[in-house]
Fold this sequence. Notes:
Blueprint: H1 2-28, H2 35-41, H3 47-62, E1 67-69, E2 80-87, E3 92-98, H4 101-106, E4 111-116, E5 119-125, E6 129-138, H5 142-150, E7 155-156, E8 169-179, E9 193-205, E10 209-216, E11 218-222
Parallel strand pairs: 1-8, 3-4
Antiparallel strand pairs: 2-6, 2-9, 3-8, 4-5, 6-11, 7-10, 8-9, 9-10
Amino acid sequence: MQSKEKLAIIFLIVLIVSSLTFIPFYNAFNYYPTIERIEKDLPTHSFKDVSIAKIGQILAVTFNLRVSLNTEVPVLPANQLPIFQGKTSSNILYIDFVNTIEDFNSSTDDICFLVTNDYIAKTRINTGNFHTIEQAKIDNSNEYIIHQVKNGNFVTYTGDYPMSPLGRVRIVDIELVYFDGFDYYPYEYKGKAIYYPTWKITAETSNYGDEIIMMKAMSLTVN
Length: 223
């Protein structure tokens, strides 16, 4: 009995020491480079370098995702935006928020919103033919974006959806756009499509390298 108790105590001590050793090391690094990046940055790398990168990728998947925000989430002048249905040659539309009628009339972005008292007073569409089908409440919190990335609630800009975890993710840029690629994959233009307010996220990932991922910016729809 005493022998079993000693083994249990030794195991517990080893577990505590391992945790104290590993956790600071784990927290110190938000990103492991891909093998392709190592080959580009260190053309004379050894087999050991490649092994370390691969071990990093395996650990990232094993211990779930680690997502870090290295940029600010845009502060929006309005928290409710329309969802559009329509037709244009592009699957991504860029937004301009303005607060004067002069800027509204002169805007050349795909979609321009005139904002008054935190609400959309007027909408100007400079491309294609669209109509509003619904209103969406926008969530621009850090917690929402990190949660969506961890749970895979996004699609890629190019249409090839990664079916395995991204690994460690460092978000380096976030922009609000409209995107129509959520309802079908791979991306094909099929006439009228639904364009949702979307976080266009530029990220460095350990399993796929640099990626642009598209995430719905709406937490819920409202009437």
